[in-house]
Write a structure and sequence with these properties.
Elements lengths: L9 H10 L3 H9 L35 E5 L3 H13 L2 E6 L5 H9 L11 E4 L2 E4 L2 E6 L9 H4 L3 E4 L7 H4 L1 H4 L4 E4 L25 E3 L3 H17 L1 E11 L26 E4 L2 H8 L7 E8 L5 E9 L5 H13 L6 E4 L15 E4 L4 E4 L2 E8 L3 H16 L2
Parallel strand pairs: 1-2, 1-6, 2-5, 6-7, 7-8, 9-11, 13-14
Antiparallel strand pairs: 3-4, 4-5, 9-12, 10-11, 12-16, 14-16, 15-16
Helix pairs in contact: 3-11, 8-9, 8-10
GO molecular function: glyceraldehyde-3-phosphate dehydrogenase (NAD+) (phosphorylating) activity; NAD binding; NADP binding
Protein name: Glyceraldehyde-3-phosphate dehydrogenase
Subunit structure: Homotetramer.
Amino acid sequence: MQGQSCVLSKTVLSSTLLQHSSFTWACKLWRGVVRSMIYCSLEDTTDPKPIQFTTTTHSTATMSDLCVGINGFGRIGRLVLRACLQKGIKVVAINDPFIDLQYMVYMFKYDSTHGRYKGEVSMEDGKLIVDDHSISVFQCMKPHEIPWGKAGADYVVESTGVFLSIDKASSHIQGGAKRVVVSAPSPDAPMFVMGVNEDKYDPSSMTIVSNASCTTNCLAPLAKVIHDNFGIEEALMTTVHAYTATQKTVDGPSAKAWRDGRGAHQNIIPASTGAAKAVGKVIPELNGKLTGMAFRVPVADVSVVDLTCRLSRPGSYAEIKAAVKKAAEGPMKGYLGYTEDSVVSSDFIGDTHSSIFDAGAGISLNDNFVKLISWYDNEFGYSHRVADLLLYMHSKE
């Protein structure tokens, strides 16, 4: 078994899991149920011209002094590593008890959705080598056992989808990390959406924070622009969402939500989501005014938000488009995009924006009741926001 420290034999691991609270996590991971919680740019696409994409090429950015560890090397963990390399963030360690080093090399090199990593990926002396970056690899079951401090990781991205609460995520601090960013909604950690409320981050009191979900990252920038300019009286959101690793390839058991167990490639599946309500946490004025649902559909990546809202102040659809475009070119540049092209979902694979407003897809019943459409790469766009939040937090040290 490859990797450094905390490496357990299969016999010892099995024995330990039976006695340990991480057994539930292990079972889910073995079944592929919690491989990643993939829930959603710095290129401007504000003009009505073909959208410009940030591609997943090898790192050319100048490295910052920010050193990061990643816990969980599933969809989100691997794409966060790509995003960090592009943005000059030094990833010094990765922990995943279920992926050995040789398999890590393979999984990072090849991606069915985002393509092969353009740089060099190999292993040497028990470490993952990406281009000229050497990354320590650990296989610890318990977060407090991961030697983040020894590896030099000041910040940790918690991307297992398991250790979501402040209490559970704080275990990383015991291993030597100074701060933790949870790459999923948290039940109690402060939640941030870049371009919307990152200015509320307080380094003196916030050690564990959440980057919310990819859908909240898509919805919140659009909702903020509309609310700031026209006021949102009330709204309903629907996200037409790509399937994720938590779903089934064919019909299987799902005791909690029966429909979730149906074949992801065969069905449009109604599902619940807390993404709309979470907007009330990042934009308090919208608390209680917004809720929503999801449809899981048979596409591998890229989702779209439908925001239907009743406005407090009348505004024509042309005025709404102008307000969104102004924000996309100004204070939300890189987070909110704008297009008037006749686009479809696959056009946004690899787009690093949180949200791309589709000016041609929305409709207006009257000046107070509108339906607005915004796209997002629920994997890659979200991973770039995790990296951006890390950089923002580090800048406040």
